[in-house]
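Subject: Interface between my chains keeps coming out wrong

I've been trying for a while to get a sensible model of this assembly. When I model each chain on its own everything looks fine, but I need the whole thing in one frame so I can look at the contacts. Pasting all components below, labels as-is. Any help appreciated, I'm running out of ideas.
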Amino acid sequence: MIERLLEQARRRGAGTADALWRRSERTSVAFEFGRLKAAGVTEEAGVNLRVVSGGRVGVAGSTAVAAAPDELVSRALASAELGAELTLAFPSRTPLPHVPTFFAAAAGASLDALIELGAGLVAQLARDGCQVNVSVERELAETRVANSAGADSSYQSTGVVVSADLWRVAGDDVLVLGDAFEGADLPSAADVARIAQSVNTRLDLALKVTDPPEGALPVIFTPAGLTAVLLPLTQALSGKAVLQGISPLAAKVGEQMFDPAFSLTDDALAPGRASSRPVDDECVPSRATCLVQRGVVQGFIYDLETAARAGTMSTGHGQRAIFSKPVVGYTNLIIGDEGRGKGDGYSVGAWHAVPLQLGGGLLGDIADGLLVDDLIGVGQGNVSGGAFSHPVALAYRIRRGEIVGRVKDAAVAGNSYDLLQRIAGFGSDRRWYGARNTPSVLLEGVSVTRRAAP
Amino acid sequence: MKDRLTDALAASRADFTEIRLERTWTSAVSFRGRRLEAATASEDQGGFVRTLHRGCGWGVAAFTSLDQLPAMVARAGELSRAVRLERPIRLAEVPPHQADAVLDLDGDVRGVPLAEKKRLIEAYNSEMLAVSDRVVDTVASYHDAVTEYWYVNSEGTVLHELRPEVTVSGSAVARRDGIIEKGLESFGLRRGWRSVQDRAAGFRRAAERAVALLDAPRVKGGTYPVVLDPELAGVFIHEAFGHLSEADFIYENPQAREMMTLGRRFGKPLLNVGDNGAAAGLRGTLPFDDEGTPTQDTPLIRAGVLVGRLHSRETAAALGEHPTGNARATSFRYPPIVRMTNTYIANGRGSFADLIKDIPLGVYACSAFGGQTLLENFSFTAAYGHMIRDGQVAELVKDVVIAGNLFQTLDRIERIAGDFRWNEMGGGCGKGGQFPLPVTEGAPHVRIEEALVGGDVPDAA
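Reply #2:
Try treating it as a single job with all components included. I did that and got this:
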């Protein structure tokens, strides 16, 4: 299929071209309110074709390509007629690194096995007055990516997501909390128990509502709660932001911008992760890309287009959906805590076997403060400057080293670039949260305000 | 096509079977600054089958290979049988409909060359760039789609529709020294090419606003009487209240059901709220939902009292209420779930001037950058605002963030003006992984007696 498209594009005048073909089959089971409700499959196949014709780039995509390959080529060429002028250098054939992306146990799991997996989690979460929703999804995918420079790679991959959320409505107080396992292979029994333990612990501690503190305080951001703090950085470390002139880190390569204990790496080769891959969606071999090392900015992530515009090389961060042009995107983001002498080590695939403590052992140092697990409105407003200000969705008050209850009607604010210059501590609770691997992080001087109803 | 669908239905051994087939042609053109980002045309096609065997759960199959339709019907049937249920799923009755509906294409976008679409959005982009040399960055996007849509079910419903949509949107970034401000404009309807002509003024206003905000002070945080413009009031009612009225939130949750008991007072007698999927030409408008139920105008709050909610056939049966035509899916990839369409606060009385004339000090919050709710708690960022002083609109202010508790805030709506209008923004709503679903909102100016306005955030490093 891909060869035919590339060949046809060449015959019809495209100087160079590349294409991605992906077929996926996803099986999902859903438990609503504690009972199995639905089972489904989704099968999808499509092609994304990019051509360079007359020095201009054009893109087209289709899920109906088998029926009309000519039409896809025509649309890509028409897109190129209007397209931006750009010298895109497609990578030639190079050996790829080895990373396991296909796990036979995940691929072979029967529908009944997936149902059993979900039912097991439901049983561990059941409690009076609460509603439990659980979903289990298993995806099998085949990806092939090739270009007119001779690169041609394909790989099979598996992905599994087991997620749970728990709802508790008491009067007008609504509490929602959840957790998920995401990986390339099936979760072990310990992994499933960890989801349940994570949800149950946070729920138990949330039952008591207490007054929020106020002032510039120590705040623990859990692996989930860190999103708001990290978002300005991940945005600023994208080559796209650098090109657009909106990255505050653009001219800071080699400079100490953060605490020397803070490192940030994007690792497309992290074992057992669903985002890992031997090659990106533009035929560029995968590797780990260090972005911040011991607080010093090292570089940015690029795809082919942003690299061409910036006069540099792609770092293998091209991501491509069927219907749009490739964009630059992260794979697995690893937050390092050099201060603990562990280097950049992070656990492989599975989580710790022992239950993780909420706060990762950082509570003990705090006389009065907050533990933030979820915020409202992350990503809204002017992220690039580093400032954030959000009401809490799920946060706990810490007094004298202990969690004393959940706080509502509080907001936290700060500036990521200021706060990350001095990190008061990393927790011992390193884990994967989505495609991010991090421990809890203790930051000092975070502004906490009450939003008591007027 | 109709025969293929009815043959596939006839082969199904399930007690209930429905099939949707979609073929969608889309094109998209976007500019960033003076540079064209992309101009693409795509084609997407696929099918969705959902079956129900007695005593079992839903079996669902979605696929892009249309020649697999008979196999997928069988597959969905097997999946349904694998889901054993103690309490069976029931579907509320909907009389079978046969309809061949072509929505107003208003200039079929499929007949317009990509180059012309590029010219249109390039012109709107230039309007923004021309406003001032302080406009340092812009994004301008054109997007259209036409979907040929088939729906059949084993109860005899057969629907064939052409569903259009078109959106133009722009954002302008203005900068002076270290200060960066943004202005947004977007326009989207379930119509075609003609409806996005002559929209340059809106793009210009977005850029002018971004520039004006450079010199505007931050709003001083505190409690004020707050007047929402129709756009923000619409977004507020969708986000903060609308999602709670989706019956899948409550139908199997006794505590949530209690919180949303019909007859509960939600506001003062002047407050009327509804959802109208049958209003003409709006983003959320369709003749039928994705279960073949006709859309309608559904009252949710009448005279301050909760009177209704939004349903699929399944949630309606579970609660002993009537389907409202709100079971929607973003595409053939997804099952229909309970969603809003065009959600509104109904008209009140009097003018905007009347609404603010007795406010000594207040905030006029306009347009929305974004909003998020966590059930009863919400937080909205207005695109811009003005202070209200001595009953008059006064200086422009920025960083207007309104946060609060839904129940308290609805109850503090004490005045509603008579200047209702529908929002015609592009964009859409996300829920359960399905995004963006075309929806819109409408409202008049709304006055909240007391609301918490935050604005002060620490300066960037």
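Reply #3:
Confirming on my end. Chain B has nine helices and 24 strands.
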